[in-house]
């Protein structure tokens, strides 16, 4: 029995075999990629919890810390598109495993940082080694799931990054309490243990990750046929006359560049919350590292809930463009409010910003995958992610420099508020297929 074609906005009636195949993918593959991203994000964001330790041990000021935090995204951007091309050539199983093992190794080497230049170099190398992981998984989901089933998968996958922010604080805070064991500083223990964990997770992924529908031994022949057919029909529905142009011309078209700019703006907010919230919370009287870690997880708990609710809504109803705009508005409001009041009020305001950031990303990637020409799907996702993630370089670097010059985060946060408002204008300017 053939599956009824999916609509853009919601689920049409699926065959029993297609429903079974999708369910098996969710059960067997989604937990694995979620854990992989969880480990990835812990290694990427743990830096925010050791700013004071790096200043005390290595003499890194706010500007140097912000530059080092941001250099990750330079290396990331340089190798993002080539990495996704190599993933298509070698398959998700092999390439994603390579990424995990090498970024784990560099994270471990961060424990041997001796000064600002080794700090800069290793942060740059961490980005280089990690490049391609996130867009690789997003592309991987497009090869496995029809459009109408992918929104929830993307949200579940992205929830791992929000969950990472929830657990990174307590985990990193606990590892920092190992300070002095065997004569090793707590922040060095943190990198040694978390980097080693990433390498171990890479060995797990090489064993269990399945690259394509045809390679899945746990799908029946009928399930493979129905699932592949549904994916192929969605790919065919996205093909246009424009797809006859060379790839480089398609990648440089206005809609793709606009999507890059929107994601860039959203990422600036997200990494500002990530890297600077712990410092804000340390202004609370008599608070320790572990308590800072626990409080830092609050914004991301709200983000996980909001992401999943939105994903269910958009799979069924669409309206992705409108929801991305609303999420950017919430980012702007949160950043503006964070410039007023006490550290406790700033925690509330940045919780709003974090919810806006993660909600924006969840809907954004679903919208993007459904609107790109199939010919440039892998490279387009990689390009948008790489250029967008440069926001993770610009924001921490700029906010760090502003803080060092003015002694306050206020001007930097207001600047990010303005950027989010510009993002709303860009979203509304997009011309997408009806129902997206």
UniProtKB/TrEMBL annotation:
Keywords: Membrane, Transmembrane, Transmembrane helix, Transport. It is a multi-pass membrane protein. It is found in: Membrane. GO terms for cellular component: membrane. CDD domains: MFS_ExuT_GudP_like. Residues 29-435 form the Major facilitator superfamily (MFS) profile domain. Its main location: membrane. The chain crosses the membrane at residues 25-42, 62-82, 94-113, 119-141, 153-177, 189-210, 256-278, 290-310, 322-338, 344-364, 376-399, 411-430. GO terms for molecular function: transmembrane transporter activity. Pfam families: MFS_1. InterPro entries: MFS (IPR011701), MFS_dom (IPR020846), MFS_trans_sf (IPR036259). Gene3D superfamilies: MFS general substrate transporter like domains. PANTHER family: PERMEASE-RELATED, TRANSPORTER, PUTATIVE (AFU_ORTHOLOGUE AFUA_6G08340)-RELATED. This is MFS transporter. The lineage of its organism: Bacteria, Pseudomonadati, Pseudomonadota, Betaproteobacteria, Burkholderiales.
């Amino acid at each position: 029995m053939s599956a009824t074609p999916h609509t853009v906005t919601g689920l049409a009636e699926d065959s029993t075999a297609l429903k079974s195949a999708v369910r098996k993918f969710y059960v067997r593959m989604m937990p694995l990629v979620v854990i992989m991203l969880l480990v990835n994000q812990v290694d990427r964001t743990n830096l925010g919890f050791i700013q004071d330790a790096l200043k005390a041990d290595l003499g890194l000021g706010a500007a140097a810390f912000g530059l080092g935090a941001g250099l990750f995204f330079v290396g990331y951007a340089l190798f993002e598109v080539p990495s996704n091309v190599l993933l298509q050539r070698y398959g998700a199983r092999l390439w994603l495993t390579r990424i995990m093992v090498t970024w784990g190794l560099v994270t471990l080497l961060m424990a041997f940082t001796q000064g600002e230049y080794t700090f800069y170099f290793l942060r740059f190398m961490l980005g280089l080694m990690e490049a391609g992981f996130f867009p690789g998984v997003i592309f991987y989901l497009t090869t496995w799931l029809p459009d109408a089933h992918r929104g929830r998968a993307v949200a579940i996958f992205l929830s791992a990054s929000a969950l990472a922010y929830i657990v990174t604080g307590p985990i990193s805070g606990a590892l920092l309490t190992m300070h002095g064991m065997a004569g090793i500083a707590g922040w060095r223990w943190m990198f040694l243990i978390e980097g080693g964990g990433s390498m171990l997770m890479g060995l797990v992924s090489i064993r269990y990750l399945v690259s394509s529908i045809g390679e899945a031994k746990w799908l029946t022949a009928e399930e493979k046929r129905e699932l592949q057919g549904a994916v192929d029909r969605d790919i065919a529905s996205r093909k246009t006359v424009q797809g006859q142009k060379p790839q480089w011309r398609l990648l440089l078209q206005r809609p793709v560049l606009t999507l890059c700019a929107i994601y860039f703006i959203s990422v600036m907010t997200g990494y500002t919350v990530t890297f600077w919230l712990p410092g804000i919370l340390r202004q609370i009287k008599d608070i320790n590292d572990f308590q800072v870690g626990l409080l830092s997880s609050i914004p991301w708990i709200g983000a996980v809930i909001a992401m999943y609710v939105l994903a269910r809504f958009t799979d069924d109803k669409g309206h992705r463009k409108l929801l991305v705009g609303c999420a950017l508005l919430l980012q702007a409001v949160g950043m503006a409010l964070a410039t007023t009041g006490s550290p406790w009020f700033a925690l509330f305001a940045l919780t709003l910003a974090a919810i806006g950031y993660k909600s924006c990303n969840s809907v954004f990637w679903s919208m993007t995958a459904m609107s790109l020409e199939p010919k440039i799907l892998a490279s387009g996702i990689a390009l948008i992610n790489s250029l967008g993630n440069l926001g993770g370089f610009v924001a921490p670097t700029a906010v760090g420099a502003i803080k060092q010059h003015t002694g306050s985060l206020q001007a930097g946060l207001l600047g990010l508020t303005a950027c989010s408002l510009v993002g709303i204008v860009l979203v509304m300017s997009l011309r997408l297929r009806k129902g997206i």
